[in-house]
Amino acid sequence: MESFRQAFELLFPPDKELLQIIGVTLRMSFFSTLISCLIGLPLGALIGSKSFRGKSFIKKLIHTLMGLPPVVAGLIVYSLFTHYGPFGKLNMLFTVRVMVIAQVMLITPVVIGLTSSFIESASKPVIETARGLGFSGLKTARLCIGEGRSSLFSVVLNAFGRSIAEVGAVSIVGGNIQWKTRVMTTAIMLETNKGKFSFALALGIILLIIAFIVNALASFIVKEVRDD
Amino acid sequence: MIEIKNLKKYYGERTVLDIPELIIKDGEMPALAGANGSGKTTLLKILGGIIKASEGNLSLTGNILYMPQNSYAFRGDTVRNIMISGADRKSALELLEKLELSHLADKKAKSLSGGELQRLSLCRVLSKKCDLLLLDEPTSACDAKGAELVINAIREYRNECGCTVIMSTHSPMLALNASDRLIILNAGKIESDGSPGETLANPGSQWAESFAAGWKI
User: Fold this and answer.
1) Helix, strand, or coil here: B93?
2) Residue in chain A nearest B135 by alpha carbon
3) Can you tell me the mean pLDDT for B115-120?
4) Residue B217 pLDDT exceeds 80
5) Which of B47, B72, B125 is the mutation pick for testing A, counting most A CBs within 10 A?
6) CB–CB contact A134 B63 (8 Å)
7) What is the pLDDT of residue B27?
8) Nearest-CA distance B130 → chain A (Å)
9) CA distance B86 to chain A (A)
10) Concatenated DSSP letters of B141-172
């Protein structure tokens, strides 16, 4: 109950630092989801719809990368952007931009894997029917996207959910710097380490509320699309 | 004319189709029968260009239309819109009426039953012109009345355009009433081939005889 009271106090009136942390969290999650989907959706559609040599190996690789531990992704990105790393001169370590890069590394395989599985299974009857009717490749692709839009939307939501809940990679490459790279998950971790469990739980409740609002909005949009 | 020579299809090490020779003349209307997994759908898909044969020669020309067994009816749209988009043969709505679907024209396809969806899929295929029409179990989801409507529509379409129609089926009613040739497949091979009446009377092999026994009604 103490955690709920603290969560309420942080939100009403809104705590300035909390608002900044929420802002960084949403910005990071939005851009990492956007970039992952821009890369992952077309690649997933391509892998799912085409037959080619090495497809089985690529699918195994993607499935492996889907389970990539966040700390490993964080370490890889850290080693690339550290002062002596190949991109060290860009001075991007401990910025939100490098946190987005780490998130993209984690989420893109998930988007590719889920999209290709969807295209391979669910859209097979659409492809067969469209080809049987003599539709062009472009018209067939448009139909697949149109018919599977709610499933593809779920892929996007999944990516966003993973991004907003992630802590390992962003704490390594972001550094959890106050007023700069601190996000909800790293703030929760910090408060837990400081022994402020009820405050950490309050932050967790707020994170859940944000995730719920985003999901509810997305579900509303999907319902609108379905009923269209 | 369709000419098939030494056509084979493998899935891994399993041979699912093995046809040394098959000729289907223009305007013929053969029905492909056989148990599940006998190669009917595989043959139709190869003829329709949906999948490729593993080896062999296939010669066919002209415009081909293929209707899969579980034809996808693009369920987000209304029956009328589905029919209107891309119809080029005759009035799409006339076809809906013929298959007794016109009262559902303003309904979304996702609200239709399996049999109604199958008739809608057939309507959509029949609204286009072709030289070769391939139908994979076109009455599998229909009741007796629906199957009769489908059979009549297929016959009428073929009589009007003179095209070749090949259909796979488990239905003696479809094979006997809508086709002029019955090809019985077993494990990817042709067991029996001839006019429906003749093939059922003299199946030619022990396996085909036991299969035909189940079809004698």
Assistant:
1) helix
2) A132
3) 91
4) no
5) B72
6) yes
7) 92
8) 10
9) 9
10) T--HHHHHHHHHHHHHHHHHH--EEEEE-S-H
- pLDDT tens digits along A189-218: 998 898 888 778 888 888 898 888 888 887
- Superfamily of the domain at A19-182: MetI-like (1.10.3720.10)
Helix (H), strand (E) counts: chain B: 8, 9
- Domain ranges (residues) in chain B: 2-72+129-213
**B66-107 residue pLDDT tens:** 999 888 777 678 888 888 776 654 567 888 889 999 899 888
Reported ipTM: the value is: 0.84
A138 touches chain B (CB under 8 A): no
Token couple for B40: 């009917």
**Is the pLDDT score of B149 beyond 90?**
yes
Residue A132 contacts B, CB cutoff 8 Å: yes
| Nearest CB partner across the interface for B71, out of A129, A143, A226 | A129
User: Which residue of chain B comes nearest to A144, CA vs CA?
Assistant: B74
- Nearest by CB to B124, which of A126, A133, A226? A133
Task: Name the CATH superfamily for B2-72+129-213.
Answer: P-loop containing nucleotide triphosphate hydrolases (3.40.50.300)
